[in-house]
Design brief:
By secondary structure, the chain is an alpha/beta fold. The protein is 42% helix and 14% strand.
């Protein structure tokens, strides 16, 4: 006897979710009946409210840019490009009339920049102030179906979990795939051996990035025949891919005819490399090892610059949730005041630059420098603790100033 499937959600019949039979071997499960009742009589179905809330809160590019400025320092060109792309994406979903004969295709985004330059932070910040779910995945963990590793479709399971199981909300979410450059195929010529974490993953990503209805296991893991599936339509999910793409600047230089040969060749500065990166084209990425079909689905490209010492100091101080403000809050809970001399901030920034970890390395430097102080923090009630350059560079003790009012 053929297995019964709900004609609406494709689930199998269970004791706690009985089916109602219709004509021509059609069935509807109890859960779908309940959802239909809410749509008709209660008005509580999340599909309509999600769409309505997002459409009424659609921000224009300047507003998106201003929101990004609160959390992301520098990267003005990338923020402007991203603001326009995000606005056009959600405008396409909510403001474009279905009766219009001109169909607007989805534009996904590729962020190119060095480690710690803010690619993930940009995606997280946009998702937070748009109040949409976001799933962040590392491309290096993905493999083709049938191989050890994580299926590409598991990214959608993560997004569904971030949306608390609300399919409609997940279908208007954001997926950020980092380390895209690490799945470049090993050259433009196809290898005889299987490249299960390279070109194979790129091919697997094509389907979900372009927009299609995908069956996913609700709890993740590998698919198997006796498993229930949920269907997610990816046509309105915004995909943001990121990667460092180290070495692509050499490909660009070669295309521009700017390479020098022989002993007189000079190493280019970071500034020169950044200027070249703004000239990147699809063919450069194809030569790097990204398949043309995938590049054709990442329509918007934004390049991020290497963070300078000055930018790093601003990152420490200026964002609404800056690291300095977070540690000052921790000290404030113990009735202590944490302050930094300007030279100390520069020393922290210098360390992060030398380690080549970008802004994400700032927290580890802060922890290393403040761990001994925080060990004694409960006993420093009423003190101001001044962090100097010597504390950061040489591990010396900070300056302790007793507040006269608490004496």
């Amino acid at each position: 006897m053929a297995k019964k499937l709900c004609s609406f959600c494709n689930t199998t019949e269970k004791e706690e979710n009985p089916f109602i039979a219709g004509n021509h071997s059609a069935y509807i499960c109890s859960n779908c009946v309940t959802s239909a009742f809410k749509i008709l009589f209660d008005g509580e179905e999340t599909t309509s409210t999600t769409t309505e809330e997002l459409s009424t809160t659609l921000l224009i590019p300047k507003e998106i840019h201003n929101k990004l400025n609160d959390y992301v320092i520098g990267q003005e060109r990338a923020k402007k490009t991203l603001s326009v792309a995000v606005y056009n994406h959600f405008k396409r979903i909510f403001k474009n009339s279905e009766n219009n004969e001109t169909y607007i295709d989805k534009s996904n985004i590729l962020l190119i920049g060095p480690t710690g330059s803010g690619k993930t932070l940009l995606a997280q910040t946009i998702a937070r102030f748009l109040d949409v779910p976001i799933a962040i995945s590392d491309a290096t963990n993905l493999t083709e179906a049938g191989y050890v590793g994580e299926d590409v479709e598991n990214i959608l399971t993560k997004l569904l979990q971030a949306a608390d199981g609300d399919v409609a909300k997940a279908e208007h979410g954001i997926i950020f795939i980092d380390e895209m450059d690490k799945i470049a195929r090993m050259g433009e010529n196809r290898s005889i051996t299987r490249d299960v974490s390279g070109e194979g993953v790129q091919q697997a990503l094509l389907k979900i990035i372009e927009g299609s209805v995908v069956n996913i296991p609700p709890k993740g893991g590998r698919k198997h025949p006796n498993q229930d599936f949920l269907q997610i339509d990816t046509k309105n999910i915004l995909f943001i891919c990121g990667g460092a793409f180290d070495g692509v600047e050499e490909i660009i230089q070669k295309r521009l005819g700017a390479n020098q040969l022989g002993f007189g060749q000079k190493k280019r500065s970071n500034k020169e490399n950044e200027e070249v990166m703004h000239l990147i084209e699809s063919d450069d990425l194809v030569q790097f090892g990204i398949i043309p079909e995938l590049i054709g689905r990442l329509h918007v490209t934004a390049t991020l610059e290497q963070i300078t010492v000055e930018d790093m100091v601003r990152i420490l101080l200026e964002p609404k949730n800056s690291i300095i403000k977070q540690y000052q809050k921790l000290f404030e809970i113990d009735n202590a005041l944490l302050t930094f001399e300007e030279s100390a901030l520069k020393a922290i920034a210098d360390k992060a630059i030398k380690r080549k970890t970008g802004a994400r390395g700032l927290r580890s430097i802060m922890e290393e420098s403040l761990v001994d102080i925080m060990y004694e923090l409960p006993e420093l009630d009423g003190y101001e603790i001044v962090i100097t350059e010597e504390v950061i560079n040489n591990g010396l003790k900070p300056i302790y100033i007793k507040n006269s009012k608490s004496a």
